[in-house]
Every structure is written in structure tokens, then in C-alpha cells.
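Input C-alpha cells:
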């Protein structure tokens, strides 16, 4: 990989961050394998799979299609490149959608149990939001016990998982023209589980053999995530743990403390992290920590659990996806507590080289080499205490000579729920629309998603975001993209100085950063709600707005599901990593061109963040023009390396 320079950081091609680079160097010195070593060991990766041209959906296979036209052009069953590529993509979206949906269902189960008084450690933190949701769902709240209302809300949302409805309840939040379009295309999501199951059914051998039909259902499966599973997860998390409001915190490995018991909460579901945070303040456990010579118990976040805890409780984040092994290499981590998703099985291998306890908690996500403490929400408080106690008891095993916390933390601001953004704007989206109309803000872009070791860590996120804000485009971030921007110092109110003059003036007038942290990956549903509010305020569909999405370093199936619902909701999206679809020119053409005429949005692929920024700026100016707003004439030279369809 090439040498990269971002914000003055010169990386050796693996990361732009000093904390990561220093820990990679230590790992290499100590002979510890990390994700980058394993990627190198896999190279060259399978070309058929990279193009989406391999299929193992049945035992007549596995099959592959020769992309050069010399070998087989059909699988044993007769499936061609179009069908195989589309089926593979559909299954990926089903897997991603189901991950978010199952996360949402776990919260729903605990929410219902809480309403029935069957849990410890959970409560209704935002009653007003519960009542608003109840009203949307047609649940009467006037004069009723709030717990009964909550139980009825839970039952109404359970219905969204099933197969008895024509449309998900929360899909009604989309603007009317969008819902009419989905109906006309027969892609209105009907039931969360239903769409995922139907996707698996359609991609069984001998079912849906029309790649266009497969891909349309793939969009519906994505919509069942965005307006279903993810949105339910976000709504109920806000109700149980609090709707985020702006909060200052810190980020990078510097948030670990040399003289404290350090616990990293890694994964996704706030059900676990919230009660662990409370347990870490338990006087008895603090006394135990002190008896071992520690000054206290320091809980930090990783990945999306980190985003959940920072958004609501201001808890510092140690890092994003590619930091999960490196945090153990600091030698300062007593426990990594995991639930599910994006947790590399390798963390237990790295932990073996240190005193770190890896504690798995979800019965659906076990990790050989970890200690499993089954998380039982009925006894949330007790389970959390047990976990914190295990971490404290690991502290005496720490080797102080191996502790290396490589950097000082960077400050960042988080907590931008739709509610808090609207509050900052004075209660309505109008001031934002006015700023967009005047051209002070050209538009808004959601930069989301993962780290991928194929891209220098955080380079795509930080560079793209910087180019956008410099050009007066407001950036919204979630997931690992948010952590990347936090580390780069782009998420402080004073970071407005990095923005163009129009965006800078708006940010400074209300005291917000030019890059707004909207949460974890399920919280991309907040972006849908915000986009719908902006569209409704103008009386147009979402695809008419000067908005775009970007996933510069995506790796996961969930990210593909997110891309599907963002595009199907009318927001064009640029990917920084090539998806495995290039074995079918027809599928590529549909996603990069044809979709624009169907849902008013499309995908592009552009690994170079400079070029991606230009693509996005052109797109935003074109949308501005469509709305009759003042627009800039940008250089229209084709972006050479893009597979953009533009
Ligand atoms: O759900 S951004 S690497 S941590 S998949 Fe995973 Fe990607 Fe990070 Fe959160 Ni989202
Ligand atoms: Fe091969 Fe068709 Fe079976 Fe896939 S479904 S493995 S292409 S025979």
C-alpha cells in the first residue's frame, strides 16, 4: 500500500492514526498477528468471489462463472453471471438486515419485559418519546399507566417482525411520494422477518431467476432494516436509555487509564453496556478495585457499543473496528466485554498474550477462548456486577512493564439525535433548509460505516469528510466513521474553522461541529427520519434533496443493507470499497445507472476520497439545480477511477 498523509499524520499505509501505528509496531515486535497480517496472508484473494461470480447455494455446485468468457458461463443449474451476482448480493443484504433486526428484537424483548416488571436495571428514561411513539402506532396513552402503554407499544412493534401486515408501521414516516413509489414498485417492506426470509427463499436454487426482480426484493429487504429493525432498535434504546443530547467526550486509545481497571465494551447492543456502566460505579466493586491498587474503574467503548455509550452517557471511545486487537496490545485492558457483531474471533488470540479477559455475554455469540457470562436481562444488574468483578480481579495480573498507552485522547462532541438537532435549530428544520436554500450550506452527506484493512484505517472517512466540509457540506456521521472523525479532531465546535465560510458561520452561530455524530450503525435510521423531515418541510420526496451517503471503508453485510435502504429511500451513495458485483455488467449497470430512474438514487464506487468528494459535490449541485436553488458550476471532467455511472 502507498504512504498516506492526512492531517499531518504520515502512515505506513495501514492507518493514519498514531495510536494504531504504535500498537501495530508493538504487535509486530512481539510476534502478535493482527488483521493486517491475516489480510496479507490471504492475498491474492479469490477473484471469482471478489467479482461475485461464485455460487455454493446447492450441492450440484460449487460453481463459478469465468469472467473472461473462456470457461463456464453457467452454473450446473444454468444460472448465469447476472443471477449468481444478484443472488449473492441479495443474501448479503438479508444477512445485514437480519443482524440489525435481531439486535432490535433483543431490545424489544427486554423493553416488553421491563414494561411487565420482569427485569432489573431497566426503566423508561424518555417517557415523552414513548408517548410520541405510542401515538404513531395508534396506542392510546391518555390516562393509562405508562408501563401498560409500553407493553402495548411492544406488542405493536412485534407485529412489524411478522408477516401479517402490508407495511411496516414506521415506514409511514417516509414522505408520501416515497411511500407511493415503494407501493408502485412493490417494495414496501411488509414484515421485517418476512422480507429476510423471502430473500433467502428467492435465492434458493430454482426460485427467482430474474436478476432485476431479485434486486428489487433486495431493496425491500434493506428497507425492512432501515425503517424496521434498525429504527425499532434506535427508538426503543432512546426510550430506555435516553434520547441523546449534545455531549463532550474523548476518543482514541488515550482514554485508557494507567492506574485504573480498564474495561472495553465492544459490540452493539446498549442493553449490556448500560448496566455495566452502572455496575462500574458500585461502591463495593470500587473498593475491591482500590484494594488491588487501582484508583478506579474506567469503562470505555469500542465500535458501535462505544457510540451508544458516548451518545447517551458521554463515555469515551477507545477506537473503531480496527482497534479491537490493538487495544489489547496496550497491556492496560483488564476486560473486553462483547455481545455481537463486528467482534473479530481473533481478539481471544491476542488476549492470550496479555492478562486481558475476553467476556462474551450473548448466547448467540460465543467465542472460544473467552469466558462466557450469559447475559440475562431479567437479572441485568446482577450479571453486570459479575462482569465488572471479573475485570477488577484481572487487575493484579497486569504486567506494568507492558503497559503502553500511546497517545493523549482527543476531545469530540457527540449526541446529535434528530430531536437534539431540531432543538439546536429552534424546534424546526426550517433554519437548516434556509441555510441550504441560501447556499451557505450546499447540502448534507452521511458518511457512515466501517474500517476495512484494505484501506489505510480512517483515511477514507477523514479525507472525504474534510473535503466535504471545506466545501460547505454538512456531514453527519455514525458507526466507525464517527469514531474516525472524532480521532481526527473534526467533531468539535471549534472544528467549524475547518469548514467553508458558509457552513462555518452556521456552525459557529449555534455552537455545533461541522460533523455531527448521530450514533451507532442502527442509528442510521435517525438519518432517514431527518431526511424525511427535510423533505416534508419542502413538500418534496427525499430524492429531490441535496443529500448523499458515503461508506468509504465499509466491510460488513450490515453496511450493504444500509446502502440498500439509503438508496431505496432516495439518497445516492458512494462506496469506497468495491462490492462483489463486477462479474455482472448488467447488475453493475442497474445499481450504478438504472436505479436512478427507478428510486431516484444510485450507487457509485470511488476509492479515492478526493474524487468521491467531487462526485458528491456534483451530485449535490445537480439536486440544488433541480430545486431551483443557486448552484455552482463544478469541473465536469470525468472522475477517472470511478465506477460511477455518472
Ligand atoms: O455496526 S461501522 S465495523 S462496528 S458494521 Fe461494525 Fe461497520 Fe463499525 Fe457497528 Ni457498523
Ligand atoms: Fe451451482 Fe446453481 Fe447450485 Fe449455485 S445454485 S451452486 S450455480 S448449481
Amino acid at each position: 500500500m502507498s504512504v498516506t498523509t492526512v492531517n499531518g499524520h504520515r502512515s505506513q499505509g495501514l492507518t493514519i492514526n498514531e495510536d494504531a501505528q504504535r500498537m501495530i509496531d508493538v504487535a509486530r515486535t512481539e510476534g502478535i498477528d493482527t488483521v493486517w497480517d491475516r489480510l496479507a496472508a490471504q492475498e491474492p484473494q479469490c477473484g471469482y468471489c471478489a467479482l461475485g461470480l461464485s455460487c455454493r447455494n446447492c450441492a450440484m455446485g460449487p460453481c463459478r462463472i469465468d469472467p473472461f468468457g473462456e470457461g463456464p458461463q453457467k452454473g450446473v443449474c444454468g444460472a448465469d453471471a447476472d443471477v449468481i451476482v444478484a443472488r449473492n448480493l441479495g443474501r448479503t443484504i438479508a444477512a445485514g438486515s437480519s443482524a440489525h433486526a435481531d439486535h432490535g428484537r433483543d431490545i424489544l424483548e427486554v423493553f416488553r419485559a421491563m414494561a411487565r416488571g420482569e427485569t432489573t436495571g431497566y426503566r423508561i428514561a424518555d417517557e415523552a418519546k414513548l408517548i410520541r411513539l405510542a401515538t404513531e402506532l395508534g396506542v392510546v396513552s391518555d390516562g393509562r399507566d405508562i408501563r401498560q402503554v409500553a407493553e402495548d407499544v411492544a406488542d405493536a412493534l412485534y407485529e412489524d417482525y411478522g408477516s401479517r401486515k402490508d407495511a411496516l408501521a414506521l415506514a409511514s414516516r417516509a414522505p408520501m411520494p416515497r411511500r407511493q413509489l415503494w407501493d408502485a414498485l412493490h417494495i414496501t417492506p411488509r414484515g421485517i422477518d418476512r422480507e429476510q426470509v423471502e430473500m433467502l427463499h428467492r435465492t434458493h436454487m430454482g426460485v427467482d431467476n430474474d436478476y432485476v426482480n431479485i434486486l428489487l426484493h433486495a431493496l425491500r429487504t434493506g428497507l425492512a432494516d432501515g425503517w424496521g429493525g434498525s429504527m425499532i432498535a434506535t427508538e426503543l434504546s432512546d426510550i430506555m436509555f435516553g434520547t441523546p443530547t449534545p455531549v463532550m467526550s474523548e476518543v482514541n486509545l488515550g482514554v485508557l487509564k494507567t492506574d485504573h481497571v480498564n474495561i472495553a465494551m465492544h459490540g452493539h447492543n446498549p442493553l449490556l453496556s448500560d448496566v455495566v456502566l452502572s455496575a462500574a460505579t458500585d461502591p463495593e466493586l470500587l473498593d475491591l478495585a482500590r484494594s488491588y491498587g487501582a484508583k478506579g474503574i474506567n469503562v470505555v467503548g469500542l465500535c458501535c457499543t462505544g457510540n451508544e455509550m458516548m451518545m447517551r452517557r458521554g463515555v469515551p471511545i477507545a477506537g473503531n473496528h480496527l482497534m479491537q486487537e490493538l487495544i489489547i496490545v496496550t497491556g492496560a485492558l483488564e476486560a473486553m466485554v462483547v455481545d455481537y457483531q463486528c467482534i473479530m474471533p481473533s481478539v481471544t488470540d491476542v488476549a492470550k498474550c496479555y492478562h486481558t479477559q475476553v467476556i462474551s455475554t450473548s448466547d448467540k455469540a460465543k467465542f472460544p477462548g473467552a469466558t462466557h457470562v450469559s447475559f440475562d436481562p431479567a437479572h441485568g444488574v446482577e450479571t453486570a456486577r459479575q462482569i465488572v468483578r471479573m475485570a477488577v480481579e484481572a487487575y493484579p495480573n497486569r504486567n506494568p512493564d507492558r503497559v503502553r498507552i500511546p497517545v493523549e485522547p482527543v476531545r469530540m462532541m457527540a449526541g446529535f439525535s434528530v430531536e437534539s438537532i431540531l432543538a439546536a435549530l429552534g424546534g424546526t428544520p426550517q433554519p437548516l433548509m434556509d441555510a441550504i436554500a441560501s447556499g451557505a450550506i450546499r447540502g448534507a452527506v452521511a458518511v457512515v460505516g466501517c474500517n476495512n484493512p484494505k484501506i489505510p484505517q480512517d483515511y477514507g472517512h477523514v479525507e472525504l469528510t474534510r473535503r466535504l466540509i471545506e466545501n460547505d457540506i454538512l456531514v453527519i456521521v455514525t458507526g466507525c466513521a464517527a469514531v474516525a472523525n472524532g480521532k481526527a479532531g473534526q467533531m468539535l465546535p471549534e472544528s467549524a474553522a475547518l469548514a467553508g465560510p458558509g457552513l462555518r458561520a452556521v456552525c459557529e452561530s449555534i455552537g455545533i461541529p461541522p460533523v455531527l455524530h448521530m450514533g451507532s450503525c442502527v442509528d442510521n435510521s435517525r438519518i432517514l427520519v431527518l431526511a424525511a423531515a427535510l423533505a416534508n418541510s419542502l413538500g418534496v420526496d427525499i430524492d429531490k434533496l441535496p443529500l448523499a451517503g458515503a461508506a468509504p471503508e465499509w466491510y460488513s453485510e450490515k453496511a450493504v443493507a444500509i446502502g440498500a435502504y439509503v438508496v431505496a429511500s432516495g439518497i445516492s451513495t458512494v462506496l469506497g470499497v468495491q462490492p462483489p458485483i463486477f462479474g455482472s455488467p448488467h447488475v453493475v449497470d442497474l445499481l450504478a445507472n438504472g436505479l436512478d430512474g427507478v428510486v431516484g438514487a444510485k450507487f457509485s464506487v470511488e476509492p479515492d476520497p478526493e474524487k468521491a468528494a467531487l462526485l458528491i459535490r456534483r451530485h449535490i449541485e445537480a439536486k440544488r439545480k433541480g430545486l431551483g436553488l443557486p448552484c455552482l458550476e463544478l469541473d465536469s471532467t470525468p472522475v477517472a477511477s470511478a465506477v460511477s455511472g455518472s
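The CA atoms of residues 178 and 541 lie 6 Å apart. The pocket of FE(4)-NI(1)-S(5) CLUSTER with Oxygen (ligand 1) is lined by residues 268, 303-304, 320-321, 342, 449-450, 479-480, 520-521, 556, 558-559 (CB under 6 Å).
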